[in-house]
Structure formats: C-alpha cells, structure tokens
Write a structure and sequence with these properties.
The chain is an alpha+beta fold and 333 residues long. Helix content is 39%, strand content 7%.
Length: 333
C-alpha cells in the first residue's frame, strides 16, 4: 500500500484522452529501442543493499578479484534476504547462512572485537567474502571464468570444479552459478543505459485494461476477488501476461533486473516508492511506468487503478524487468 500524497489530477475528458494516447504511443518506443546498450559496474545500485550493511558489502566485496560488491550482495540476498537472524531447516545461520561446520573453519572476526559471531553481520559479511576468495584460490588453475568457478565451488565443492575443469555438469550447480551472476545485475549500479524490455508494451496494455478497477489489499485479480488488485498484484499479473513470473511483493520485484536512472526510464519499467530511500527492503509501493512522468498503479484502499505521477518525494527508483532476472529471484527471502 502506498502513502497518499496530495496531488491535483484531473484525468478526465481531454486529460484521459491524452494519457491513453501516451500509453498507445509508447508501445512502439518500447519495441524500437530493443537494441539499446547495456552496462553495469561493481558499484551498488541505490538502496539495493540496506544502509546498515552497504559499507560492509562495498568494502568486503572488493576483497579479491573473483568477487565484487554486487556479487556479494546477490549472495546475501539469495541466502537470507539480508536477514541477520535467518536460520534454515538445514541449520544454516545468519545473514550469510553458514552451517556450523563451515563457520568453525571459515568464520572470521570481521570487526576485531575478539569474537566470531555468525549472527553478527559485521563478522558474517566479511566471512562470506573471505570464504568466496578462499574458494577462488582453490580453483584458480581450473579453466574458465574464475568467478563462475568460485560460485561452482561454493555449491559443489572445489574438488568437483578441479575434476571437471570448470563448472561441473550438475544441474543444481549450473543453476546456482546462473542465479547469482544474474542477480548480480540487479545489485550493480549501471554505468550506461540498460537494455529495454521487449515485453514492456504488452505489460502496459494489460495494466491499461484494468484502469478503473477498485483496489483490494492482497488482490491478485482472481474471480473470487472480483478481479481486483493491490499494487504488486497488478504488476505481477501484468508481467505474467507476457510470460514473466515476478515475486508477489514489491520489495522483491525490485530485484527482477537492472535499475535505470530516472532520466533513462522507458515504458514498462517498474517504479518503486518507499519511506526509506536507503533500503530496498522497505519498498512499499510499485507501479508500471508508461512515459511522460506517469505510471499505472493500484494506489490504496478506496481508490481505483489509475494514472499517477511518479515524481513524488517517496520515489525510490526503477527496475527494468528481465526474464532471467525474475527467474533468479528466490521464492522466499
């Protein structure tokens, strides 16, 4: 649900006709820009890592050449969703999800307080980076990409990487490598325009057909809900209509691809809003950008799906959804 901002809008008559023309007009733009140039860097995207951990991830993500801050962030998000109190059924613990045996061997005292505490991110995040770099050193002579080999060693063990001369032919390991390297893009700060979605126009078209539909908290658009949506239910359904499955909640949808700057927004980008502009985990609203500074969104209880401006004080940022990016997201974080 999004906080209500007092905005004077009159999307009626000529105004509605203008907005409809805007949406129709941007379909060709989204398609014609399909050959845009992508890019990224080892810097962290705005707010992608909670502010409490950003400095740690930036520092320790540069510990060795096999990792970078965005890759380390992707691992932490995949393992725990940045939850320092996470504990798995397999007894993996903390923000980096170390099992006790691995922690006993590879945990380090990252903050120099004389203790190695798996529950303290000041120890666990440096330990995750240190462990990655140790694994990279174990497989440094294996053919192939050193980062991919490091990730494969994390999943399958260094011996398997050495034995097979690179990423081993295990489906689970290959999927893990692809997942983390794909998620990395959603945590990296782009350094040039990122590729536009080729499904953007169809996602907008889906959302446009829902204009005027009453909002429903938790709404997924099902028949028993009267076809009503909340904000992330609408964006999820819009992209499902073009074969891309997004997570259910807005703060996870933020990680479904790279993050264009405000000046680089294209129709079909998801746009996000938060009361905490330093932490993507605090995102509480999402809409679909249609161009001209407007989005289609399901704003709040008592309102209907409509056009809203995006340039409000709570604007957080945007995501250009990719199929691989959506597939890489964990089902629970």
């Amino acid at each position: 649900m999004r906080k209500t901002w007092v905005v004077v809008t009159a999307v009626a008559g000529v105004g509605l006709a203008f907005m409809s023309a805007l949406v129709v007009g941007v379909y060709m733009v989204a398609g014609n820009l399909a050959n845009g140039v992508g890019g990224g860097s080892v810097g962290l995207a705005k707010g992608a890592v909670p502010a409490a951990y950003q400095t740690l991830v930036q520092k320790w993500g540069n510990l060795c050449s096999a990792i970078n801050p965005a890759l380390l962030a992707a691992q932490l998000y995949q393992e725990s969703g940045f939850n320092p109190n996470a504990k798995s059924p397999a007894a993996a613990e903390g923000i980096a999800q170390f099992i006790p045996g691995t922690w006993a061997t590879h945990g380090i005292d990252g903050n120099g307080d004389g203790k190695r505490d798996v529950w303290d991110p000041n120890d666990a995040i440096p330990s995750a980076a240190s462990y990655d770099c140790k694994l990279a050193s174990y497989v440094k002579d294996a053919p192939g990409n050193v980062t991919e080999n490091m990730l494969a060693a994390y999943n399958a063990g260094a011996y398997a990487v050495i034995k097979y001369g690179g990423v081993p032919p295990y489906k689970e390991t290959q999927n893990y490598v692809k997942t983390i390297t794909t998620l990395e893009k959603s945590f990296a700060r782009p350094v040039s325009r990122v590729d536009p979605s080729q499904r953007a126009a169809a996602a907008i078209y889906y959302a446009q057909k829902k204009l005027g539909t009453p909002y429903l908290w938790g709404g997924n658009g099902t028949a028993d809900q009267g076809g009503r949506f909340d904000c992330s239910g609408l964006t999820k359904a819009a992209y499902e209509s073009v074969g891309v499955t997004l997570p259910r909640v807005a703060n996870d949808q933020y990680n479904a691809g790279p993050h264009p700057a405000r000046a680089e927004l294209l129709p079909g980008d998801l746009v996000f809003f938060s009361d905490d502009l330093t932490n993507s985990r605090a995102i509480r609203h999402v809409g679909i950008y249609v161009g001209g500074g407007y989005m289609i969104d399901a704003p709040r209880t008592g309102a209907v799906i409509r056009f809203d401006p995006i340039d409000t004080p709570d604007y957080f940022g945007a995501t250009r959804v990719t199929e691989d990016g959506a597939k890489a997201l964990p089902t629970t974080v």
